[in-house]
Amino acid sequence: MDLVTENQAAMENEPLIDEPLKRELSVLYRAKDRHYHNLAHIEAMLALAGDYRASLNDAEAVEAAIWFHDAVYDSRAKDNEARSAALAEAKLAGRTDAERMERIATMISATATHELPSLQGPGDGDFIRDAALFLDMDLAILGAAPDAFDAYEQAVREEYGWVEEPMWRAGRGAVLKTFLARPHIFHTEEFRRRFEPQARQNMARSIEALEA
């Protein structure tokens, strides 16, 4: 077995996210200024990934994207997603091949807009499907029961505690209206059936409160 083959075999046998890396990332998600973008959010997404594991082409890559997608989070910054993707690339170096790493980073970066990446290469259909499910998992809280959604809204407000109330109301209302204006909030049929009606009710109610 040559060195390249040995390296490939090692990557295949080593998990992308092992226990030491989980512990390292968990420290970031337990920071005191994280009220929503914390470990509970990661655990909720991992639970959804478990629910839809049979629908994922590369479940391990999606789980890696979940672990890293909010690893860097500063409510005052505009480049959290790019920095989180860069951190994933640094921490996962040597654990997977370059193409797979690029797809993980692309999923993480896509959380900036929650628009699907536009790729047209061989096998991209499977990746787009995984990316769609990943992005829908990230937004599933929008379709939660009203009390859980309200707790989420309050937690996000606390993360933006430095923003004055009039500016917060205008900015948050604009974000919610942007999502409501989309033909579909969720990319996949599964999540549309499960979460879309409640998500639209929750956001409409939140906008009404913000504008009161």
Write the layout of secondary structure elements.
Elements lengths: L2 H11 L5 H11 L9 H13 L7 H10 L11 H12 L6 H13 L13 H16 L6 H14 L5 H17 L7 H23 L1
Helix pairs in contact: 3-4, 3-7, 4-6, 4-7, 5-6, 9-10
CATH superfamily: 3'5'-cyclic nucleotide phosphodiesterase, catalytic domain
Indicate the mean pLDDT: 93
Number of domains: 1
Compute the number of helices.
10
Give the biggest beta sheet.
Answer: none
Q: How do the SSEs run, as a string of H and E?
A: HHHHHHHHHH
Beta strands, count: 0
The helix-and-strand class reads mainly alpha
Q: End-to-end span in angstroms?
A: 69 Å
- Would you tell me which CATH topology applies? Catalytic domain of cyclic nucleotide phosphodiesterase 4b2b
- Uncertain spans, ≥5 residues at pLDDT below 50? 2-7
Portion of residues within helices: 55-70%
Strand content: under 5%
Tell me about this structure:
The protein is globular. The protein has one domain: Orthogonal Bundle (Catalytic domain of cyclic nucleotide phosphodiesterase 4b2b), CATH 1.10.1300. The termini are far apart. The chain has 212 residues and is mostly helical. Helix 3 packs across helix 7 (124-139), helix 4 (59-68) packs across helix 7 and helix 5 packs antiparallel against helix 6. The protein contains 10 helices and no strands. The chain has helices spanning 3-13, 19-29, 39-51, 59-68, 80-91, 98-110, 124-139, 146-159, 165-181, 189-211.
Task: Give the gist of this structure.
Helix content is 66%, strand content 0%.
